[in-house]
Amino acid sequence: MIRFTAGGKTVSVHPGSGSGGPVVYLNTFADEGERVYRELQAESAPDFSLVTVSGLNWDHDMAPWDIPPVFPGKTACSGGADEYLELLTEEIMPRAEREIPGEILWRGIGGYSLAGLFAVYSLYQTEVFSGAASISGSLWFPGFREYVFSHEMKTAPKHVYFSLGDRESRTGNPCLKAVQEHTEEIEAFYRRRGINTVFQSNPGGHYKNTVKRTAAGILWLLDQQPSNYGKEPDRRQISLWSCVNLLM
What we know:
Blueprint: E1 2-6, E2 9-14, E3 21-27, H1 33-42, E4 49-54, H2 58-61, H3 81-97, E5 104-112, H4 114-122, E6 131-135, H5 144-150, E7 159-165, H6 179-192, E8 196-202, H7 210-224, H8 240-247
Parallel strand pairs: 3-4, 3-5, 5-6, 6-7, 7-8
Antiparallel strand pairs: 1-2, 2-4
Helix pairs in contact: 1-7
């Protein structure tokens, strides 16, 4: 593993075997990237490189625009996603990829909670990612569903993964209780547009099995993509049973 700092963020690079392959960028809340990487290795994931970013100003870097606090007394979200995405694509990615041997075949982006929201939002701002994993993504974010329905992506990704805990929408909070409805509607919208998608429901609330859920999303992306980017995509879906086994 190689570590460096950029723009006040800590970046960890887990290179693949050296023969070339995909690279997945994972924004993390508490530097859980190492645990996610170990989980993927335990699940015999295809050869790939993982780049994780921690030390984020979570409610700023991952938020596409300003919103007031979701809970009384909590921090408001201030829209710093565009600024952070510029740091990611212009500084972090080039430096990280100098540490990765072989040819990079494709790039994916993933994240949990607000980072799952950011993963989807990034598809509308840059064309560098061909796949995204929004794991328990904060797609309840006010105005985001409408943004998805009314804006065009820079380049349509080949694959997008969505997941939620089956208890996440069981809340009295009017914002958060819409998360499953919004996630399912966005997933269906992408599917109608010809994007390969899946929505995975996992047992529990927002904070259960976060590392395993994150690994499951990345594993699905790795399973969908071709081993050689010039070949026709592998359209087979990882079975829901495999996802369930990973989460057990």
